[in-house]
UniProtKB/TrEMBL annotation:
It is a multi-pass membrane protein. SUPFAM superfamilies: MFS general substrate transporter. Belongs to the major facilitator superfamily. Sugar transporter (TC 2.A.1.1) family. GO terms for molecular function: carbohydrate transmembrane transporter activity; symporter activity. One of its GO terms (cellular component) is membrane. This is Major facilitator superfamily (MFS) profile domain-containing protein. It comes from the Eukaryota. The chain crosses the membrane at residues 104-122, 134-153, 159-181, 193-214, 226-246. The keyword Transport applies. It is found in: Membrane. Keywords: Membrane, Sugar transport, Symport, Transmembrane, Transmembrane helix, Transport. InterPro entries: MFS_dom (IPR020846), MFS_sugar_transport-like (IPR005828), MFS_trans_sf (IPR036259), STP/PLT_plant (IPR045262), Sugar/inositol_transpt (IPR003663).
Amino acid sequence: MAGGGFGAAGGGADFEAKITPLVIISCILASTGGLMFGYDVGISGEREYYFIYIIYGLSDEQIYANAGGVTSMPEFLREFFPGVYRKNQHPGRESNYCKYDNQGLQLFTSSLYLAALVATFVAMHTTKSLGRKLTMLMAGIFFLIGTVFNFAAQNLAMLIIGRILLGCGVGFANQAVPLFLSEIAPTRIRGALNILFQLMCTIGILVANMINYGTSKIKGNYGWRISLGLAGVPAILLTVGSLIVVDTPNSLIARGKLEEGKAILKRIRGVDNVEPEFLEIVEASRVAQEVKSPLKNLMKRRNRPQLVISICMQVPM
């Protein structure tokens, strides 16, 4: 969270606070951003896990079953990737990995991640300058439009545009939602509420696989459309949720809205004595303002251990 995270309170003190309904509702609604990401990863049937399945000793047939999504549905392949479809009509001639060795198909899956990478850098600035709430709203809108493109796709170009828009939504959501959850949660349960994002990612993957299993049984050329179209459900939840929730005190204070930030802090903590936490947030915001280039600061020698650890954590073992 290089762009937006420097405004977070960082003292770790256990300030006086109640677990208010506003906090619980806000965190549940915001964490649907994780559901949105997980669903899309599961629904498209990403095959980046192929070599992991090999490590676990799965056969080609088992790999095929585990990696299945809309990209393994015959109707979907026949519509957009006829070359892959033809390879699938000759079982036993080559491995399932080679059957899906198609540049267009790989572009379909990877375009989301490339777009998300670029969108994350844009979202760093919107999260900081416009707030977490508005950034989550933009994520929901991107994802809704991307879902419409994929659901109504008539050619590969529409699919790719849809995936790029979905990637923008993922980039914005992944930047704003974890930050939102951390800042709105009371310090003593901050970890528990923040992990909601990862939990919802996992639930999204599970739901996607269950839906894929059902839609793959549907005869005709619309099972894959149902799978892709249902991605709009978590997108709607995030969009509506971002309209309902309040912006975080950290975001408001960082943008100079001190009184509004203090008022919101009282609402989400459910107590009147918020002065100690308010002062810490103000101080954290002041320190953050002194960092002119967050990315350049991240590359400094004193921050390298944390940077290396965070990168290594993403490497599958």
